[in-house]
Amino acid sequence: MPRTNWMLLLIASSAFVQQGFAQAALNSPPASTQFIVCPGAFPTDLEATDCRYTGSQRALDFVSGSVTDQAVLGAVVFGLGAQVIQSPSEWKRTWDGYGRRVGSRYTQALGKGTAEYLFGLILNDDPRFLAYRNDPSVITRRQLAVRALTASRSSTTGPSGASPSVQSLDALSHDGWQRFGHAWYDVITVRRSTTQGNGRRIPAISRFAGEAAGAYAGYPWYPGAENTIAQVGQRAAGAFGTAVLSSFYTEYKPEITNLLGAFFRRGRQSKSSARSNP
Amino acid sequence: MKMTKMTLLTAIILPGLGGCHVALQSYRVQHPAIEVSPPPIAPAAVAAATSPAKDCVDPKSPICLAFIEVDDMGELFDKGELDTALRIIRQANDLANAEPGQSDPVVITFIHGWKNNASPENDNVKGFTAALQEVYKSFNGAHRVIGIYIGWRGNLIKSYFPVSQQFSYFNREATATRIPGATLSSALTQIATRTHENQRALAIFIGHSFGGLLLERTLSETTASQIAEASIYAQEAQETQDSKVTGDKALAARLAVDSRADLVIFINPAGAATEAKQMLDFLTYNRYRYHPQQEPQPATPESNETERPLFVSLTSTADMATKVALPIGHSLPYLGFQSNGSFRDLNQEPNKKYDLTCFDPQNKEHAYWELKTKEEGAVAQGSYYLSSAPHMQVLQSHEMLKSVGANQMRVASTGQTIQIQDPNAIANCDRALFNKQGLNIVSTFKLYDTQACFAVQVRPNRCNGTPYWLMEIDPDVVPDHSTIFTQRFIHFIIDTFFAPNGKPLQRLSPQLTH
Q1: Does ipTM exceed 0.85?
Q2: Cα separation of A229 and B168, whole Å?
Q3: Contact B358, B371 (CB under 8 A)
Q4: Do B47 and A273 touch (CB under 8 A)?
Q5: What is the pLDDT of residues A190-220, one digit of tens each?
């Protein structure tokens, strides 16, 4: 019953947020044909001419994320964490226990990836996360603002730098709450894979299926006490949390980049030398 | 049951690990040069237009792409590839010289970086091909464009093994350091010399990421020698009374100039700043300036548009690979060097002297001075090893400004904002209006897709005023380490370095003076 409520909540919130973005898209003009902007790709990227999430890309993401070294490393590291806190408690802190912890995590990753891959393949979805500024509907609104700016420039002769269009451009770049909301929206929905990259938003069935499959994949490994619905739900919630983190990282990558960049910067020009050498 | 699980796991992992290497091979020996179709009107068709690979044999082909491939030891896979590239350049030059109306070629040589190679499916190959089309289109087809893609084994591990691929960083960095040698150095010299058989043709070298490191190491010695030779011959030609000797020396100087590229661009270079530091010191100690031959008068602070770069090193402020991964990757070797006492600290004792010498001909107080202490901005030698050159503010010669609002510009490297007095300067992206405020703007450009105005400014109080320009650029122009084949970036390069202030593209034949 709690699971049903959870699913209903997800679908309802998905529909609500989707409606907001659909409204934004309705108010926007058709996308510019000047160049293709693939979702998540940099504007005017000459390599991003085909926005489809292709079969080979899907296979690469599946194999690299759920089968090979990345999956093994994830299992080894998170298995070590579980070893430290001795979870599940039935497995002792021995090599055998560690092996089970690593094996169960690897199996879960494999199960999750396989389900995601298969469901994604059937639904032909594009599960790649997008930052708010890269969302096709936001890009369309930006293009509208640019066109309005160009139009206002051509119709006025005086300084037109402070036109409403400039403000709307700035607003599109610095919209805190919409970015936050979009990060959540992107977790619970995916786009249909299309050449233009503006595929219809659908509930992230492949992601949910992957999380559920990953959680259930632990069944053969875990002791009986860990195989309750509640425990499986916890494991699925953990996987969902990872997806939320990924989405938020995608959204706030520029800020994280700046923070890390400031930390690692070397060879700053000193203020004293700047003053002494005009 | 346990055995079954273990066997299953091993069966999955082992075969994968066994075949994770990308083979050491050439990809282009059979077809060392291909035609690239002229750009279509809609960029959407770019990918489709590049798919059929047709050998470039017709000298009238508007765009050609040649490949030169080297192995892990820096040897050519097939000398025929280099010969083909040189033949294409010669044919284009012959055509331009023989038939009036035929366009002068622009020869762009590109060296890719980590995780790339010359295979037809490679993203850098596709991106470079599209970039050549964009360059052709930018000059309205007025120039024949020849691309030379220098391929090496930048990708050691297949993408199916992302963690192992990341750990190939050290191995590939060592390879990018090992490859430069007589083979590649002579190949680049031949490309430049062959290009300049037509005095109006342009030779441009570009290196990205480890390709930047590779290019810098390949060029440093030869370019320094060419510069030194050219300036000595030019000086002797001026000093001697004998007209024949004057002619000979002038010719030798011109040949030395012709054997180097007109511009070398490093994009997000993944080499330590210690690589650039030697060239910067060479240019600083000799007080070299670089300005067009057509301008006999040396540049004055008021007319800095005549100052041109010989090297340009650009990096995005959002390039985490060089900003974060490089310092982390270099930290272990750094500790080794440090424990061996290989790095020099800032010191003023005569036998251990280490500081930073600055040269800026535009500085009104002094053109040549030294930064001796940390407070003045000097850093110990080890710091150069832990950063790429354009990320170091003390080495930066220029800054990129971006409009934020109607009357503010933001400095990409520092985040500092500058109030602009005349809003028309931003609205029209007008260099002259910016400079009325004394901002010392070298060039401006506008992103045509967002209409945002950008400006390249001479860095105030800079230490580096040499023809080796270094600057950090805004993520709106280059968003990260790898995304470089974009219309935005190509137009920034063209507007800033090739068509400054609206002048048509021409070889400036700049001259180094000191």
Answers
A1: no
A2: 42
A3: yes
A4: no
A5: 999 998 888 899 999 999 999 999 998 888 8
